[in-house]
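Whiteboard transcription, Tuesday session. T.W. wrote the structure tokens on the left side:
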């Protein structure tokens, strides 16, 4: 069959990449074209993303693809959620997008709840309360008296900003828009009620478009700069990275439109651990509210019922802290040290709010242990082991609640994304949850991005077909649960911790 090439520009909080997908109608081949680091830049007292450089790296990825003589059928951009840029008159980018870990949102949840009840926001959006949701970032801008909102014509989410820079088109792709906490999944529209309660300008929220639809074509200036012979279509994939990752879960059991509840869950593992199930419609009730589960938009009308768990951020930020002090340990080194440390030392609640921001992570972990009457981890390896065991126990906590919410039994955990390469964490997840872990594919986000471009181009007919292609094209490693007794004991201690 004819092979078609698609380019995914996939940006994560730690790194970005240009991935070329070659699809022959049956299998997908994946090639890394370009990889580059990503991270925050502090200017004055604000933490920004380096948007100009990110855009430049994306153009480099397109240029390298063009040079490799691949003729690309389409390009799609995905990034993390919640962050945005503002566009003013005459296509002016107003300021530079701010990083969601910037402390400007401190106190904004309460400020919002003073104007519209917490319950009401949840009822409308079905979204979990995270301090950095777009809506609280906007409220922070307003509260600070920023001039930007006065002159903004359009708010564009991060992937939509990049799509606009590539094509000139302004639109809001649905999956990423669902992370704003400004979208009502039942009407499928921006919520007038929330905008007016918080006095946010409803008019800056752009038209919504479906994942898989065409955004536009590359601007002539970009085409020329990257050395393409002709312009290329830019498709909006699921532009929220987590939505793209969930698309690429290699499962044969469909859940879309199915009456039976899902018997598998996904864990998109990277800087964050996003653990949840795919459901046919939002689940918004007393239980999802109490446990702060979120209903984010999926593809083809599905909903991603999930929870944000702090994830490998705990390890990444610990590693950076030690490196700054001259103790530069590689990721594999750290994992080996964790593996040879004693099991079941102190435990933490990975989602304690104190772990959210940048800074000295080991000190905050030690402080958490002190506060909860536990000894501090005795070495770097022990501290990493504490993080990984605690993450695995939080996975179990989350799965048990999902089972109760959906009245189902989860039989299989699919770990996708960079974290699926972390064999220690995969094994701990299987052990703590007492369920087999199917790990892979590593590049789930890019794969979901690419295959949704192909689906948008009518080369794939359904989500079930798409997932069968993933399963055929990429290997999966299975981890069977071990050592149940010891993990049950640890779980007893963990339950006490997350209760307090
Ligand atoms: C993962 C992710 C999460 C989102 C967080 C912040 O990369 O997109 O889904 O909650 O980043 O945007």
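and on the right, the sequence the group agreed on:
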């Amino acid at each position: 069959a004819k092979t078609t090439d698609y380019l995914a520009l996939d940006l994560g909080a730690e790194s970005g990449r240009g991935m070329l997908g070659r699809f022959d109608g049956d299998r997908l081949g994946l090639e890394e074209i370009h990889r580059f680091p990503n991270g925050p830049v502090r200017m004055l007292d604000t933490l920004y993303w380096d948007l100009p450089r990110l855009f430049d790296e994306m153009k480099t990825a397109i240029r390298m693809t063009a040079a490799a003589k691949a003729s690309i059928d389409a390009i799609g951009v995905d990034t993390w959620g919640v962050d945005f840029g503002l566009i003013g008159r005459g296509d002016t980018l107003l300021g530079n997008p701010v990083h969601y870990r910037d402390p400007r949102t401190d106190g904004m949840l309460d400020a919002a709840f003073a104007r519209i009840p917490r319950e009401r926001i949840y009822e409308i959006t079905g979204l979990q309360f995270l301090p950095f949701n777009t809506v609280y970032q906007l409220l922070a801008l307003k509260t600070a008296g920023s001039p930007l909102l006065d002159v903004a014509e359009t708010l564009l989410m991060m992937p939509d900003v990049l799509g606009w820079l590539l094509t000139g088109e302004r639109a809001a792709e649905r999956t990423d828009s669902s992370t704003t906490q400004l979208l009502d999944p039942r009407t499928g529209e921006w919520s007038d009620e929330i905008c007016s309660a918080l006095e946010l300008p409803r008019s800056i929220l752009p038209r919504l478009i479906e994942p898989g639809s065409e955004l536009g074509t590359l601007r002539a200036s970009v085409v020329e700069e990257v050395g393409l012979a002709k312009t290329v279509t830019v498709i909006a994939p699921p532009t929220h990275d987590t939505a793209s990752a969930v698309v690429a879960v290699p499962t044969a059991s469909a859940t879309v439109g199915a009456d039976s509840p899902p018997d598998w869950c996904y864990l998109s593992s990277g800087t964050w651990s996003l653990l949840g199930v795919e459901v046919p419609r939002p689940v918004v009730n007393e239980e999802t509210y109490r446990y702060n589960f979120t209903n984010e938009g999926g593809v083809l009308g599905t909903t991603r019922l999930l929870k944000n768990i702090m994830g490998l951020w705990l390890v990444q930020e610990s590693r950076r802290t030690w490196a700054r002090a001259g103790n530069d340990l590689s990721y594999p080194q750290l994992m080996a040290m964790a593996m040879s440390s004693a099991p079941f030392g102190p435990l933490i609640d990975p989602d304690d709010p104190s772990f959210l921001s940048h800074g000295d992570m080991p000190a905050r972990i030690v402080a958490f242990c002190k506060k909860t009457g536990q000894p501090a981890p005795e070495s770097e390896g022990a501290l990493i082991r504490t993080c990984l065991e605690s993450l695995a126990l939080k996975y179990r906590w989350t799965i048990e609640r999902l089972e109760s919410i959906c009245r189902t039994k989860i039989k299989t955990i699919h770990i996708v994304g960079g974290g699926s390469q972390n064999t220690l964490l995969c094994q701990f997840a299987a052990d703590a949850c007492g369920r087999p872990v199917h790990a892979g594919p590593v590049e789930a986000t890019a794969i979901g991005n690419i295959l949704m471009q192909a689906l948008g181009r009518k080369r794939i007919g359904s989500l079930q077909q798409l997932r069968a292609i993933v399963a055929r094209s990429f290997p999966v490693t299975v981890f069977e649960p071990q050592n149940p007794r010891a993990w049950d004991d640890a779980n007893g201690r963990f339950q006490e911790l997350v209760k307090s």
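Someone added at the bottom: The chain has 19 helices and 22 strands.
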